[in-house]
Design goal:
The complex is a heterodimer of chains A (603) and B (392). Chain A is built from 15 helices and 24 strands. By secondary structure, chain A is an alpha/beta fold. In chain A, α5 runs parallel beside α11, α6 runs parallel beside α7 and α12 packs across α15. The chains are: A alpha/beta (603), B alpha/beta (392). At the A-B interface, β2, β9, α12, β23 and α15 of A face α1, β2, α3, β3 and α4 of B.
């Protein structure tokens, strides 16, 4: 049944065809162009992505039927910027006017960060061209074809105009009682703001790399925003605006203190985890520089082999300056033996620094025991708690730490803000020299907005920690269990150790983790392997080799870290793409061609 | 037919690998232009940049030159990323540091110390770019790997063989460095610039508004940015604990008479004239280097010219190994004008007809400074790369 070109049909007539399940197609229809290699489907496994367009609750929506029930809509992605294929939905009854991608037509864009097909109605002016081109997909409501565009050159010459329709009503298909039209839209020129890249943008994008960083919680952002604009004052200023900023800073200090069971006076805001750790380590070392005899001047630090670089490289720098450092070894579960700490203590030991939770494995160290040992020996005890705060309960007194570093961007606050807990009575010289901010402990005008954000994030973390941990660990366990069950030759690293609820690290034997990471990213799943160096290349993980993995296994390991916003659907998505990607990689893993050694020169 | 089935019946083009191409991006103008060109052709592009050499290593070798002259530096990686961002395709940095050192740097140094004059770029192509990088490209879903090399690949439909040809722009031709590619490697590679001139490539880069369009070219070996090989070999050997033979050795003439002394054969390359460390009545050149005897042989320009050489580890590229002597144009170093020669297979290919065989090259006219360790590449008159191998 060919309805195309018969636009004079009434909606009712159309619907009657639809009801009979007619396939609407014009023989010369641009649907043929769907075969064009430029267009390709981007779904995870080549399956349609089921999604539902939620009923529109606008005033004009007809009340008597559910407008947009749509399942199994295929999302089309553009392979180059030249073509956009936009699924267009006709909602027959509520009379929404033509929507298209150009000018003042109405168009629905996916809500930011939403993968479920929940569309934001852009009713007033229609979406801007920029918005349209930036969106990987969009849905337009229409029941008439848009008017032909007459002057193409005008669009081409307009700098910001690059989307227009060159064909309309190419095909219609029934979806329950609605029409689904595919419109062919051409895009001319290139938008600087456009994100609609061929393969970088996939229809679905799942982020399982929350140990690397977290998004700023909307409530946190809301709390911060006034401190960029109306409440911009310097917290050290005497005037009323300054006092307002000061009070916000002190509230935040309290919120952070409460999260880790400290006194607000013991919290110093820093630029992040690295500064906090550096301040603690270099500070404690410096406080032992003044000594009466040269013998007493020798210093010794105990740390572990799987510390974050912020600690590890600080210790290595101190080694260059003559401090001796013991790097404690690990068992295969990535745990340090408290007895080994006790053995390593020397008379000149000035600091024990052991991380709380490991970033790559998620293993949680037995800090309480080490804290007691440190207390007995009267040695300062520092922990890098960047990966544990907000994920598991952290209490400085239970852990027995004197110094603790934490970072904002790991707990849904922005990057560039962190805190250092300094137990009162600890003699810790400042790292930076400047004004009298923060009692002189950390000079530099306070990053008020960042501090407010950290405080708000800490408050949220405290409130939702238990609930988050239960939900996230259930998701993590399912992910881990299912991957191990579905993919042969896999093993979870350090799974027997106590771990943060969100982290799993899995060896995919025989697979290059670097290739798997990229393959997964191209399929829309973001995860991580090892540590990235400044160029973004993968470096062998010192953590994985420290727990006894062979270099091959270390290279074959991938970390998935979940977050507060991880959904069950996202885990399903991961479980869909990971096994497929691993299978694909393994099928290619035997090196083809000759071994190139043949060409090696004879020496 | 229910509604859902109709939806299923919608014509859909499946993702086909053949449209996705990985581009090896150095951050320079050539490889960036490749990415732009392929994207304009409607191909799905994934950018890959190799991390080959740790810039923090051997800092004394970095020199003081402007950053863009240090190939493979972080700036180049960022340039590649900028291009990818500008053209809006995914880009990744892949780490082949260990592989590069094992397959390229170490052999380079070993060769040098054994008195040869190696070319690292050929090994890098054969063993890094078209080996692990090509594999990575395949693994992440690209059918082919495109590079910014100036050379051409063709499939000969009658022989079913993949042929390698000189670039259309003779002055930019890089086929000399690509003779080691196997049929498999050639079948999975693309050199989109082979038909273009450097000016056209620049023009293309400008037209695409590439941020690297005006970037100068890097000419030096990437891990020796200063171009001072001797300095590099000394620093590298010191770092890796390779003992250099710095003991005094003899410089002899062809008759075996001692004409001078030197302090390590690694300081010399064949054909070298300057820096022999002694004055002679007429210009003398290094004729050969004998690392085992710690001896350097010198002679005048005439004696530097020879007509024959043997080539080992020969890879037959555009043709099968011939059964009888053939005539070919043979190029013996990058800047050498190919010279007519007769080439005959002299065995050495025990179990593999394509690789590892040896040939003897007899030039019609003697060639200057035929250097052990350099590549010898055989061309026919149409510019096909027939074969290549190492001069021994």
């Amino acid at each position: 049944m060919n309805l195309v070109g018969r636009d004079n049909l009434s909606l009712k007539q159309r619907e009657s065809y639809v009801g009979k399940g007619a396939v609407l197609r014009r023989p010369s229809s641009p649907v043929v162009s769907m075969h064009h290699p430029i267009i390709r489907r981007r779904t995870a496994e080549g399956d349609p992505i089921p999604f539902v367009v939620r009923p529109h609750a606008g005033k004009r929506a007809a009340p008597r039927h559910q407008p947009f029930e749509m399942v199994n809509v295929r999302r089309f992605q553009v392979r180059t910027r030249r073509l956009i294929v936009a699924p267009i939905l006709i909602q027959p009854r509520n009379g929404i006017r033509i929507g298209a991608a150009v000018g003042s037509y109405r168009c629905l864009l996916p809500k930011r960060g939403n993968r479920g097909g929940n569309y934001k109605r852009n009713d007033r002016r229609g979406a801007s061209l920029q918005q349209v081109s930036a969106a990987a997909e969009f849905v337009v409501f229409t029941h008439h074809p848009p008017p032909p565009i007459r002057n193409l050159d005008a669009y081409q010459n307009h700098k910001d105009t690059y989307v227009f329709i060159i064909d309309c009503v190419p095909s219609a298909q029934t979806v329950q009682r609605d029409f689904l039209l595919f419109w062919r839209v051409r895009m001319i020129g290139k938008s600087p703001a456009s994100n609609a890249s061929p393969s970088a943008t996939t229809a679905t994008r799942v982020y399982l790399d929350y140990n690397a960083t977290t998004p700023v919680e909307p409530a946190v952002l809301d709390a911060m925003l006034p401190y960029f604009t109306e409440n911009f004052a310097n917290a050290s200023s005497i005037h009323t605006p300054g006092q307002r900023a000061r009070s916000a800073v002190e509230t935040a200090r309290e919120q952070v203190a409460v999260l880790i069971g400290a006194n607000p006076k013991e919290i110093v805001f820093t630029s992040g985890g690295t500064e906090s750790d550096n301040h603690a380590i270099f500070g404690i070392d410096a406080s032992h520089l003044e000594c009466s005899t040269s013998l007493a001047c020798s210093r010794h630090i105990i740390t572990s082999a799987i510390e974050h670089e912020a600690v590890l490289n600080a210790c290595q720098e101190l080694e260059k300056r003559g401090v001796s450092v013991t790097y404690l070894p690990f068992d295969k579960n990535g745990l340090v033996d408290p007895a080994a700490v006790r053995t390593a203590i020397r008379p000149e030991t000035v600091l024990i620094t052991i991380m709380h939770a490991n970033n790559e494995l998620g293993t949680v160290q037995p800090l309480e025991k080490i804290g007691r040992i440190a207390a007995e020996a009267d040695i300062y005890f520092h922990t890098d708690a960047v990966q544990s705060v907000g994920k598991i309960p952290v209490d400085v007194n239970t852990l027995g730490v004197d110094l603790l570093g934490l970072s904002g961007h790991k707990i849904y606050a922005p990057k560039g803000i962190g805190a250092l807990y300094i137990r009162s009575g600890t003699r810790l010289p400042q790292l930076l020299y400047g004004g009298h901010h923060q009692r002189g402990a950390r000079p530099g005008t306070e990053n008020v907005a960042g501090i407010v954000g950290l405080g708000a994030a800490a408050a949220i973390a405290r409130q939702s920690l238990t609930e988050d941990a239960a939900r996230v660990s259930a998701l993590r366990d399912r992910l881990e269990f299912e991957i191990l069950a579905r993919v042969p030759d896999t093993r979870a690293n350090a799974a027997a150790a106590p771990r943060t609820p969100n982290t799993t690290n899995i060896i995919f034997s025989g697979v290059e983790g670097e290739a798997l990471l990229i393959a997964l990213d191209l399929r829309g799943l973001a995860c991580s392997t090892g540590a990235a160096c400044s160029s973004g290349a993968v470096e062998p993980s010192h953590v994985l080799t420290a727990i006894g993995l062979t270099p091959e296994d270390a290279r074959a390991s991938l970390r998935f870290s979940l977050g507060r916003h991880t959904t069950s659907d996202e885990i399903d998505f991961a479980l869909q793409v990971v096994p497929a990607a691993v299978t694909h990689l393994r099928s290619l893993s035997s090196t083809y061609g000759r071994t190139s050694a043949v060409v090696a020169q004879r020496v | 037919m229910n509604n859902e089935t109709q939806l299923e019946a919608l014509p859909v083009v499946e993702t086909t690998e053949s449209h996705v191409v990985a581009v090896a991006m150095s951050g320079g103008v050539d490889s960036s232009a490749v990415a732009a060109l392929l994207q304009q052709q409607g191909r799905g592009v994934i950018g890959l940049t190799m991390q080959l050499w740790n810039q923090r290593r051997l800092p004394e070798l970095q020199g003081n030159g402007p950053a863009q002259h240090r190939c493979c530096s972080l700036d180049d990686v960022y340039d590649a990323k900028r291009v990818a961002q500008h053209l809006n395709f995914p880009h990744y940095v892949v780490n082949f540091e260990e592989h590069f050192e094992e397959r390229v740097v170490r052999p380079f140094v070993d060769q040098y110390l054994s008195g040869r004059t190696p070319i690292a770029c050929t090994n890098c192509n054969t063993d890094v770019k078209f080996e692990p990088l090509l594999r990575m490209a395949r693994q992440i879903g690209a059918a082919k790997l495109a590079t910014g090399h100036y050379a051409r690949i063709r499939k000969n439909e009658s022989t079913q063989r993949w042929e390698l040809l000189r670039a259309r722009d003779d002055s930019k031709d890089q086929s000399y460095f690509l003779w080691g590619l196997t049929q498999e490697q050639l079948s999975r590679s693309e050199f989109p610039l082979g038909e273009l001139s450097k000016d056209e490539v620049r023009e293309l880069a400008r037209a695409a508004n590439l941020p690297v369009a005006e970037k100068p070219e890097s000419m030096e070996l990437c891990f020796v940015p200063t171009g001072n090989y001797v300095q590099f070999i000394q620093a590298y050997s010191a770092e890796r604990g390779i003992a250099l033979n710095r003991s005094e050795g003899e410089i002899v003439n062809e008759a075996g008479e001692v004409v001078g002394h030197h302090n390590g054969v690694h300081n010399f390359t064949i054909g070298q004239r300057k820096g022999l460390g002694f004055a002679a009545g007429k210009p003398l050149y290094v004729l050969s280097i004998d690392a085992a005897k710690n001896r350097v042989v010198v002679g005048d320009d005439e004696t530097l010219r020879t007509a024959t050489c043997e080539v080992e580890s020969v890879n037959w590229v555009s043709i099968d190994a011939p059964t009888q002597a053939i005539r070919a144009m043979v190029k013996i170093r990058h800047k050498h004008e190919p010279a007519v020669a007769t080439v005959e297979v002299i065995g050495g290919a025990e179990n593999n007809s394509q690789f590892g065989g040896n040939v003897r090259v007899t030039f019609d006219a003697p060639q200057r400074a035929i250097t052990r360790g350099q590549g010898a590449v055989l061309y026919n008159e149409d510019g096909h790369v027939l074969a290549g191998g190492w001069i021994r």
